[in-house]
Each structure stands twice: as structure tokens, then as C-alpha cells.
Design a protein that fits this description.
This protein is an alpha/beta fold. It is built from 31 helices and 27 strands. Helix 2 crosses helix 15, helix 7 runs parallel beside helix 8 and helix 7 runs antiparallel to helix 16. The N and C termini lie far apart (about 130 Å).
Length: about 950
């Protein structure tokens, strides 16, 4: 009874409404897309099927690209704009302007496979699809897509040509690889559906590609037409299956590929893009797909090599493609299609069908109501910290440990040297990777190398020779799928290099930042980690895992033939690398400060400096004084020469002369000692056999060279024509080793060569990598290339030439300027920074360059012979102050330089002059007298006035 009553009411309402309606008023309500289609001309409908590709970077009104695009939009219009790259600020401006000019809203699309950072630097960097599948958690596919959708919409992108839904079941595939979720069709389908929902739920259109499957081929369709298997059952059960799953889930678009199955399709030569068999019969009719069919780029080799532009365009539309990735020549393409329609080659119904689909896509995401980008959304959502944290979590969970022979991981504690090597599969790239930088931030002593495809075999061999067999080596291999490369492994020379290294080094860890099948070329690898891609988020995650800060739990979504099965992956628990606690306490850093911050009085100090110049102690100089890390005095005084043309500036470079012995050579020996490459007691002949020309010389040790107790003479002329290093090594002793102190340039010449022999690098290279570079001593260098105006000259030689920009010392100059006893140039600031590092116990800020024990051994431990290693101690009529504490150490240089470091008083004083100008005979005694007074005045300025009982005023000041 109740049902009959409701039916009566429903019929009555219909009759009333129909009676009120005028002719045609109760017709079916059309959608915005349908109404819009009816208003478009044929050319405008064709325009809706076309895409224009561009970089979203600033262009002024006269730019030809901007002019072309503006003309297209204002005449026929364009369906979409494809973004290759750009910046958010330009997107805000340009896309809004393009939308304003356009009659019909423009769909903006991009390939966003691994995050918006792929296209916009400010966007979030995400792992590739295979890495997401390696986590074993399909909800992370949704999360990754959510981030891409929100960030994409925030910069005006509406449509993502992603996810890749190919089944990657061919390890030799050069272009899909980690872009796929994996090799199992059900897994690919499952993750693709989550990914599609993540995009669609947050306002972005989704595309699955590359139909009917680009996974089982060894050809990159960017260069040639790719062939796929022709077994129908296999295709439906494997390649096509995840596409069917995605279509059933409601994906918006399907991109067809430039592939063919010649033994299956009617026309063996046609790629799927141009094939009605694949696009209409299989995709639309067989799978029931009702959405937009997109071509892959029509300029790719799979099309362009075999078909004319007009042929490809007409055949793609007749095959059933709705949206043509033409990139450019849009107007020409519209002309071609219009002519084809008018000549009956393409049915206008086919054009209407595609144009309507495109308009419906725009309506689906609300472009008919609002086509503009909100600046507030861009600032709010692009690069959010929340997104970056999610990306880091996915990356960490994706890492997959495939082999761990010998239990090398976790590293826990490293006894030998840790070497990190970046190998790039492309030329001209010697950047230090994010992975390497992250490992170095652990404060472990690390030596790193970078090699690329352009490196010679000689260079590769030199690197291999520098890697110790007993060390731990981490190899970061960057070999990823890339269009037009037609290769997925490392180049042949790098392949041989890595195989040779595997033979040499037992503890070797290979991290593949890209191709997970890379290990097939190196089956003897002891440890193998898949990181799937070389973007920053994966590199950072890998560094954390290698250091043991996070667990490794990823599982392979592929099979690596003869190595590992689908689903394999060794679980590794969190086990942080043990580092001395002191390493995590930052060292004090220098700050330029106001004098009153250390209660300094500077009037007398400044006056003494000026008086020294007036008394011709030196033409000019730089004095830097600091206490407790605060630089309270740093000034230049006088001029570069007595000609008084160029005043001295605080940042000028000076020839340090024998300060080289401590700031360079002793520092390098300390670092080698830290790296366990040498011991202090090693005999010189261990590294330079030709040194052992007598029984006594065979006993000389590194320690004796450092303390000037080797028995070698102070000096000898090696700058004469015909002299060689052989002459240096064969120098006769003048005393028994270990008995008497004889300050010797020759000993430090030999130490410099020991550094070269052990490290494989000269002093400049080695120190730049391990000491000067990490500390930021940018102006400390042998053979400076700085402008001469910054370099203070030294002496006028016997021929009347000013020695300027080259080392003053004759022996150093003869041997190329890069020697252990002299040749270093630097600034007061750099030297003070080095001194502060030693006061800190080898660390500056968070950068540790020496172990604390090593610093104590070299600077505070007086040896049996009463000496320090390399450094001097003040004593007697010391020309550099009378207030030094007992623990003070320092050194001087013949050109007129000095640095004294006082840990007890926490004071460093650096005085740089060119007192040998214009001639060394003018140096004494004025320079020494004034040097003592200046250093003492620096102490007095901060009220440190307790005289060291072992120090006396020079006669002039008594």
C-alpha cells in the first residue's frame, strides 16, 4: 500500500513538471564539455588534441617561443602544455597569463615519476617506483602520489604522465628498469592502483604507460622501434594485465608506446601508437577503456626514424589516439589534420570524440570553474617538510641488502682506512656525491675519489693503486636508465676497473644508485645494496643505512638472474657506527669580535706595529691575534714594498717559507698517521729505498726527520742545473741519527716526498682533500694562482728581479714549488683557523681533521730528545714574545712569518711580513727585535702579562 502511494506521488510530480516546461526545456542537461564542444570550430577541436612542450623559464614578450605559443593560443588554441622543467615563480606568472589568454582552459601536464623535484627544484624528491615496491607497503605508493598531486597542483600542473605500469621482466631493458614497480604483473597492478588513487584523490589526473607494455625489450624507443614478445597468452597474462587492473580502477588516461609485436598484430611494422589493432581493438574494445588515449612523444626515434611527421600524426589519430604529444609545430599539425578531415582521410567524428574527451578531463578537475594558480597554494604546499619526511621514510624502507658475505655490514667499527668511490656512467662528472658527503659528515676519516666515463685508463689505474687492499671501500655506482643512452650498465673501462678492485679489496661494498641488476656484471661482489636511484633522497637514506643509523629491510620486486630471487633481501638491524664521543662535540670556531669582548686594549699594539714599519723592520705586514676563538686584532700595516704603491690588506697572501714545515708537511704526516698508513717509527727507506746509501741512513726514522735529529745537514744546494731528487735522497749524514739536533731543510724535503709516495698525491692535493678543504682554508696553497695584487712579494734577486707570486726558497722553486720544507702561501686568517683546530684537539666546528690523540702526540708530547714533532717551542731570547705558557708551540719562516699557539692561555698570534725585502741581509736584527715586542704587546693587550721564566727580553728592550 505504502509503495503504491509513493509511486503515485512521483508520477504526479512528473506530470506537473512536464506541463510547466516549454518546448525543449526538459531536454537532457548537457555538461560544460558538451556545450563547449558545440561552440568550437574544427581547427579548435583539433587544437584540443595537441600538446605544446616547453621549459617554464622566464621569457620576455619578444622571445620567439613565447610569441609562437601566444599565437597558437589566440588562434586555434591548444589542449595542453607539457612542462619539462622550470621554477615555481615563473609558473605562477606564465601559466596564469597563458590561461588568461586562452579561450578554453589549458591542461598542464608533466612526467612526474619521482617527485616534483624532477621538474622544479623546490619540489620534493621522491624514490622511484621500484624503490616504493621494495618497501612491501603499497600504501606508500598512495602517499608518494599524494605528495606529487598536491605539489603539482600548487604549481599549476593538472595531469601526471605516470605511473609507469610496465612489467620490468627483462634485466637488459635500457629505459624502463627502476621506473617500473617490478616484474610481477599483480604487484605492478596493485601498486599502480594505489598510486592512481593517490593522484586522483588530490585533484590530479593519472596516466598509465606504456601500453601494451615496454618491459620486455632491450630497445629504447627513444632511439628505435622496440619489439615486444608476440605470444598472445603471455601478453594478456603479463604485460597487459596491470593495465587492465588500472583501467578497472578508473585511470584517466593510457599512454601507448612505440613498440610492436610483429608476429601478433595485423600490420607487423606499425608501432602501437599508430596501430588500430592495439589502440582501438585491444585497448578500447578489448579492455573497455573509455578515457583519453595519449601518444608517447612523436619525436622519439621509434616514430621519427620510420615515419614522416604527417604520416605519424594521421595514423595515430585514426588508430584511436586522443591526445598527441607533438611538442612543437602545433599549427602545422593542425593544418595536416584539418586537411585530412576535409579530404575524408580522418572522420570528423573521430576528432569530435577526442576533443570531447579532452574537455571532459578539464571539467573533471574543475578547470571550467577555476583555471588559475593560487600563489598561496604554491607557498603553502611546494616542498613542505611533511612531504620531505615522508619521502625520506620511503627511501629508508626501500633500501635492499642483496649480499653481505663476511658480515661486512653493519660496519660498526672501522679499523683500517675507509675509502669512498663515486663511479658515474656518463662523462665529465667528478662531483662528490651526496652519499659521500653524508658519509664524511660522520666525522670518520674518509678518503674519496670520483671517476666518470671520460677518465683515461691511466687515471683509473692511478686511483686503483691508491686504494689499500686492507681498507674498507664503499663504491657508489650511478648507472640509471636514460633516454638515448641505449645502455644500462657501466662503461667498459669502468667495468674493468671495478672488477680489478674486487680482486684487490676484500671488504668492498657496492651501492647501486640506479640499475639493480648491476651486480650481474660483478657476481663476485661480497656486499651489494640496491638504492634504486641516485637522487638525493636515496643517497641520504643509503648513507644513514651504511652508517648503521637505520635498519635495512627492503625486498627485491624483481629477480636478478643467478644472484637473487624475487622477494629476496637481507634484514639488517640498526647498529650505529661507533665513533669517539669527542667527535660529536664541536670545536670552537673563530669569530671576528669587538676588542671589548675580550677586554682588549689595542692602542699600544697598533702603535708598536706602526713603529716597526717606520724602523724598516719590514715594509708591511699583517698581524692577527685571537683569544678564546675571538679575533680581537686583524689588521694590515705598511705596504707591499718600500715603493709604497700597494698598502697591505688583512687578506693578503704571504710566502710562509718554513712555516710550510708545520702547516703542510707535519699536518700531512699527522693525517697519514691518523689513517694508519704510516707510523712515526717507520724507517725512511721503507718508502724511499734509495735513501739508504749507508748503514746509518737505513736507521733514520720519520720521527728523527720531524725532530731534526736525523743527522742530515741543515742545507745543501739542490737548485743547481742537473740536480735531482736522487741527489736529495743520497745526501750524506753529518752526524749519527738520534744524537744531535741539526735543523734541516733536507729532512723536510724528504718528508714531503714520503707523503707523496704513501698517498699517491702531492702535498697540495693531499692537504686540500683532507685538511685545507674540510677546514675551509681556501687561501692556503702551493703555487698560488691568485691575482698578484693579493700576493706580497719577497726579495729582489741577484739579477734585480722581484720575486713575486712564486716561492722565495731556491730549492723549493727548483723542484716545482710544492715541497716539504717551503713553498706554502697563506693568509693570517687561514693560519689562525688551523691553529684553532689544533687547540680544539683536531676538530673545527663539526669537522674533525685529526684525532685528538694525534694532536697531543705532535704538539704537547716532548720526546726524549727534548723536541716536538715538527713544531718548535719558545725559549731563551725568543724573538716572538716573552709571555708564552709552557705548552706553547709554533714556528717561523725565513721570509718573515711566524705563528705561535698557546693552548693554556687560549691565544694565537700570527705575524706575516716580508722582512727579506728588498734583501735578506736587511732582516736582522730589526725584524727579530720588533717581532718579540709585537707578540708581547698582543699578550699585553688582553692582560696576559706573566713572563715565562725561560724567556728573556732581547737586548734592545731591556
Amino acid at each position: 500500500m505504502k509503495k503504491t502511494f509513493y509511486s503515485f506521488i512521483y508520477i504526479t510530480i512528473l506530470l506537473i513538471l512536464s506541463g510547466c516546461a516549454g518546448p525543449g526545456q526538459f531536454a537532457f542537461q548537457q555538461s560544460w564539455a558538451e556545450r563547449t564542444l558545440q561552440k568550437l570550430t574544427l581547427r579548435e577541436k583539433i587544437g584540443q588534441m595537441m600538446l605544446y612542450g616547453m621549459h617554464m623559464k622566464f621569457m620576455n614578450n619578444e622571445n620567439p617561443v613565447w610569441q609562437e605559443l601566444k599565437t597558437i593560443i589566440e588562434t586555434d588554441g591548444v589542449g595542453g602544455i607539457h612542462l619539462w622543467s622550470g621554477d615555481a615563480g615563473t609558473s605562477l606568472t606564465m601559466l596564469n597569463e597563458l590561461q588568461r589568454m586562452s579561450k578554453i582552459p589549458i591542461l598542464v601536464d608533466a612526467d612526474i615519476e619521482h617527485g616534483m623535484n624532477q621538474r622544479y627544484e623546490a619540489g620534493t624528491d621522491l624514490p622511484p617506483l621500484m624503490a616504493i615496491a621494495a618497501t612491501g607497503d603499497s600504501s606508500l605508493a598512495y602517499e608518494a602520489a599524494r605528495i606529487k598531486a598536491i605539489e603539482g597542483r600548487a604549481v599549476g600542473i593538472h595531469w601526471n604522465f605516470s605511473p609507469v605500469t610496465d612489467v620490468n621482466n627483462n634485466p637488459a631493458n635500457p629505459i624502463i628498469n627502476v621506473r617500473s614497480f617490478g616484474e610481477d604483473p599483480d604487484l605492478v597492478g596493485k601498486y599502480a592502483v594505489e598510486y592512481i588513487r593517490g593522484l586522483q584523490d588530490h585533484g590530479m589526473l593519472a596516466t598509465v604507460k606504456h601500453f601494451p607494455g615496454h618491459g620486455d625489450t632491450e630497445t629504447d624507443s627513444h632511439t628505435s622501434l622496440a619489439r615486444i614478445p608476440s605470444d598472445s597468452t603471455r601478453l594478456w597474462d603479463v604485460e597487459i594485465k596491470p593495465f587492465k587492473i588500472a583501467i578497472d580502477a578508473g585511470v584517466d588516461a593510457v599512454m601507448v608506446a612505440h613498440v610492436h609485436a610483429p608476429d601478433l598484430q595485423p600490420n607487423a611494422d606499425l608501432p602501437a601508437t599508430l596501430s588500430k589493432f592495439w589502440t582501438t581493438n585491444v585497448l578500447k574494445n578489448g579492455l573497455g577503456f573509455k578515457g583519453v588515449v595519449v601518444t608517447d612523444a612523436m619525436g622519439m626515434g621509434g616514430i621519427a626514424r620510420n615515419y614522416s611527421k604527417d604520416f605519424g600524426l594521421i595514423y595515430a589519430i585514426n588508430a584511436g589516439c586522443d591526445f598527441i604529444i607533438q611538442a612543437h609545430r602545433v599549427t602545422d599539425a593542425i593544418d595536416v589534420v584539418e586537411r585530412a578531415v576535409k579530404e575524408g582521410v580522418i572522420a570528423e567524428k573521430r576528432i569530435n570524440e577526442s576533443a570531447l574527451k579532452m574537455l571532459k578531463m578539464k571539467e573533471k578537475i574543475g578547470l571550467h570553474e577555476n583555471r588559475f594558480i593560487s600563489m598561496e597554494h604554491t607557498y603553502t604546499f611546494l616542498g613542505k617538510n611533511e612531504f620531505k619526511k615522508s619521502a625520506a621514510d620511503i627511501a629508508s624502507r626501500a633500501l635492499t641488502l642483496v649480499k653481505n658475505n663476511g658480515g661486512v655490514l653493519p660496519l660498526n667499527k672501522i679499523d683500517g682506512e675507509l675509502i669512498v668511490l663515486d663511479i658515474y656512467d656518463h662523462p665529465n662528472d667528478h662531483r662528490e656525491s651526496t652519499m659521500t658527503k653524508s658519509l664524511k659528515s660522520s666525522e670518520q676519516p674518509i678518503r674519496s675519489f670520483q671517476i666518470d666515463e671520460s677518465d683515461s685508463s691511466d687515471f683509473l689505474n692511478s686511483v686503483l693503486n691508491q686504494i689499500p687492499a686492507n681498507g674498507t671501500v664503499i663504491v657508489n655506482a650511478f648507472a640509471s636508465p636514460q633516454a638515448h643512452k641505449d645502455r644500462i650498465g657501466l662503461p667498459a673501462a669502468e667495468n674493468r676497473f671495478l672488477k680489478d678492485m674486487i680482486k684487490k679489496v676484500e671488504r668492498l661494498i657496492l651501492v647501486s644508485f640506479g640499475n639493480p641488476y648491476l651486480i650481474q656484471d660483478f657476481p663476485d661482489l661480497p656486499v651489494y645494496v640496491c638504492a634504486y636511484k641516485g637522487n638525493k633522497v636515496m643517497q641520504t637514506a643509503a648513507a644513514e643505512a651504511i652508517l648503521g643509523n637505520v635498519p635495512i629491510n627492503g625486498k627485491l620486486p624483481i629477480t636478478i638472474p643467478d644472484i637473487a630471487d624475487f622477494g629476496d633481501g637481507i634484514d639488517l638491524q640498526r647498529s650505529p657506527l661507533r665513533v669517539e664521543a669527542s667527535n660529536y662535540k664541536p670545536g670552537k670556531m673563530l669569530q671576528w669580535s669587538m676588542p671589548y669582548e675580550v677586554e682588549a686594549q689595542l692602542l699600544e699594539l697598533r702603535k708598536i706595529l706602526e713603529d716597526a714599519v717606520a724602523d724598516s723592520a719590514f715594509p708591511g705586514g699583517v698581524l692577527l691575534a685571537e683569544k678564546s676563538g675571538k679575533i680581537f686584532f686583524h689588521e694590515g700595516v705598511g705596504f707591499h714594498t718600500y715603493a709604497k704603491k700597494r698598502p697591505v690588506l688583512p687578506a693578503d697572501l704571504y710566502d710562509l717559507a718554513s712555516l710550510t714545515k708545520v702547516v703542510a708537511t707535519t699536518a700531512a704526516i699527522m693525517k697519514l698517521f691518523d689513517q694508519k698508513k704510516i707510523t712515526i717509527d717507520d724507517r725512511v727507506v721503507k718508502y724511499i729505498p734509495e735513501f739508504g746509501t749507508s748503514a746509518a741512513k737505513k736507521t733514520v726514522s720519520i720521527q728523527q726527520l720531524l725532530t731534526h735529529h736525523s743527522g742530515l745537514p741543515a742545507d745543501k744546494r739542490y737548485d743547481l742545473e742537473g740536480s735531482s731528487w736522487e741527489d736529495v735522497f743520497k745526501t750524506d749524514l753529518i752526524a749519527e741519527p738520534g744524537i744531535e739536533r741539526e735543523y734541516s731543510d733536507i729532512g723536510f724535503l724528504i718528508l714531503g716526498e714520503i707523503v707523496k709516495k704513501v698517498s699517491g698525491q702531492n702535498l697540495n692535493e693531499y692537504l686540500k682533500e683532507f685538511v685545507y678543504g674540510p677546514l675551509g682554508m681556501e687561501s692556503t696553497v702551493f703555487n698560488p694562482m691568485n691575482p698578484l695584487r693579493r700576493i706580497v712579494p719577497t726579495e729582489i734577486d741577484l739579477d734585480g728581479n722581484l720575486i713575486h707570486g712564486v716561492v722565495h726558497d731556491e730549492k723549493a722553486r727548483y723542484f716545482g714549488g710544492n715541497t716539504g720544507h717551503a713553498g706554502l702561501f697563506s693568509t693570517a686568517r687561514d693560519l689562525a683557523l688551523f691553529g684553532q683546530t689544533l687547540i680544539n684537539g683536531g676538530i673545527y666546528g663539526w669537522k674533525r681533521v685529526f684525532r685528538e690523540e694525534t694532536v697531543k702526540l705532535f704538539t704537547q708530547t716532548v720526546q726524549e730528545n727534548g723536541e716536538l714533532f715538527g713544531w718548535d717551542q719558545p725559549g731563551g731570547f725568543n724573538p716572538f714574545g716573552i709571555y708564552h705558557s709552557e705548552n706553547t708551540f709554533g714556528h717561523t719562516g725565513f721570509t718573515g712569518t711566524s705563528m705561535w699557539i698557546d693552548p693554556e692561555n687560549d691565544i694565537i698570534v700570527v705575524l706575516l711580513t716580508n722582512a727579506v725585502h728588498p734583501s735578506r741581509i736587511m732582516k736582522a736584527p730589526n725584524y727579530y727585535d720588533w717581532g718579540q715586542l709585537i707578540h708581547s704587546a698582543a699578550y699585553e693587550a688582553v692582560d696576559v702579562i706573566e713572563q715565562n721564566p725561560n724567556l728573556e727580553w732581547r737586548e734592545r728592550w731591556k
